[in-house]
Design brief:
With about 240 residues, the chain is α+β, with helices and mostly antiparallel strands. It has two domains: about 100 residues, Aminopeptidase; about 130 residues, Gcn5-related N-acetyltransferase (GNAT) (Aminopeptidase). Helix content is about 25%, strand content about 35%. The chain has an eight-stranded mixed β-sheet with strand order 4-11-5-10-9-8-7-6. Strands 1-2-3 form a three-stranded antiparallel β-sheet. Helix 5 links the parallel strand 9 and strand 10. It is globular.
């Protein structure tokens, strides 16, 4: 007997906190950071370019377009590959795995090589932007760091790795912007930063989750070893309003 693919099973599972996750974030725990109506919402642009529609149909995208100016760009998570909509130009996109941490024990917060984690804020933005531009972990705007905790690792005064919190839905917080300077990879910085954030999220009684490009095999392997499980296959689309 054939066994159903776990991702396919997840896509047909009952509604939970992760279904249409950007929409749920913008209508629950992060509603104070949202602009929009009952059909379409987006984060305040300085916070994030991410946006969502209640349903990925013509009405939803028409409503989203009314929140933007011509030439504005947003990123959306969709259950299926993007289908052309009038008034929008598709710029780029990729299949995206949503992964949720299991209920097992967390790895040690420091492991055998403890690191000095530094909280990151507005004063660190120039170095954060430099690192993001170099590594491209995902969208990062001038106030993205205000969403949640951001931690970094420094070497000789330079920011060489960071990770932070992004989407927040009931009972769950997303780990995002995980990146390491190419000259400092292989030292366990990403794993250590993620583990630290996972402990903090669990201490609040929440579950960590994340999103990763389906073709990022190396990262997916790391996340699985940290206890994350594949929950759903989404489709990320970057769209420009015509």
């Amino acid at each position: 007997m054939l066994t159903a693919n776990p991702i396919e099973k997840a896509l047909t599972a009952p509604m939970n906190a992760h279904d249409n996750v950007i929409w749920q974030a913008l209508t629950t725990r992060q509603a104070h950071l949202a602009e929009g109506d009952g059909v379409a919402k987006r984060f305040i642009p300085e916070i994030s370019p991410l946006a969502a529609v209640a349903e990925p149909n013509l009405q939803g995208f028409d409503s989203l377009a009314r929140l933007l100016h011509a030439g504005d760009v947003v990123g959306v998570f969709l259950p299926e590959p993007y289908s052309p909509m009038p008034g929008w130009t598709y710029l780029r996109g990729a299949p995206l795995l949503e992964m949720v941490h299991g209920n097992g024990a967390l790895p040690s917060a420091n492991g055998s090589q403890p690191y000095d984690f530094v909280p990151l804020g507005s004063a660190d933005l120039p170095q954060m932007f430099t690192l993001v531009k170099l590594t491209e972990p995902g969208p990062f705007n001038s106030r993205t760091h205000e969403i949640g905790t951001y931690l970094g690792v420094r070497s000789e005064g330079n920011l060489v790795a960071m990770a932070g919190e992004r989407l927040q839905v009931p009972g769950h917080t997303e780990i995002s912007a995980v990146c390491t300077h190419p000259e400092h990879t292989g030292r366990g910085y990403a794993r250590a930063l993620m583990t630290k954030l996972m402990h903090q999220i669990r201490a609040r009684g929440e579950t960590p989750f994340l999103h990763v490009r389906q073709d990022n095999v190396r990262a997916i392997d790391i996340y699985k070893r940290l206890g994350f499980n594949e929950r759903a296959l989404l489709h990320y689309a970057v769209l420009k309003k015509d």
